[in-house]
Recover the amino acids of this structure.
């Protein structure tokens, strides 16, 4: 399956990088690499992630990497990464389904 990153997920990833890079540019790159590699994993195994408990929808899943929740939507033959959120932060009331 193909994996597509939504604009909001790319912005999340950029924000994570910028935040970590303030203290350690090398670690920031490592974290972003691990997160993007998890996206490659879900392309092969789209339902390997758990359902997001806050949304209780079969097609909305998540994988955890470090302290981050990579939230994605399985739709037909595509996977859309919707958000990358620190696990300590609350999720929006509804999933960010803007896949454009």
């Amino acid at each position: 399956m193909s994996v597509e990153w939504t604009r909001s997920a790319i912005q999340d990833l950029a924000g994570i990088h910028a935040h970590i890079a303030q203290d350690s540019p090398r670690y920031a790159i490592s974290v972003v690499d691990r997160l993007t590699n998890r996206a490659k994993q879900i392309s092969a195994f789209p339902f390997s992630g758990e359902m997001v408990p806050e949304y209780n929808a079969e097609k909305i899943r998540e994988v955890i990497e470090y302290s981050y929740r990579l939230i994605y939507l399985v739709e037909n033959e595509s996977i859309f990464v919707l958000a990358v959120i620190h696990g300590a932060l609350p999720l929006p009331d509804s999933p960010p389904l803007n896949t454009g």
Observations:
- The CA atoms of residues 3 and 39 lie 7 Å apart.
- The radius of gyration is 13 Å.
